[in-house]
Specification:
rod-shaped, single chain, 3 helices, mainly alpha
């Protein structure tokens, strides 16, 4: 009996991330978290200002409360 012809298909291996790309992603993620922490710190300082200080900056209390209520990753 004749064997059916074999079809050579290339084996697909899962993509492997290099150590360099893993480090790049880690550094990028850490920078993003550091940015969020800084935004949180700035909003906390803004929330501590009194109304007359906000008026000096041209800000009202309602928009400041709205801004301070946001999550750090919200623009």
């Amino acid at each position: 009996m004749l064997d059916p012809p074999s079809i050579d298909t290339p084996r697909c291996s899962p993509p492997q991330a290099s150590a360099h790309s893993v480090m790049e992603n880690l550094v990028r993620s850490m920078a993003l978290v550091a940015h969020w922490i800084e935004i949180r710190r700035q909003r906390a300082q803004l929330a501590e200002l009194e109304d007359h200080q906000l008026a000096d900056l041209g800000l009202g209390p309602a928009p400041v409360r709205k801004e301070c209520a946001k999550w750090p990753w919200q623009a």
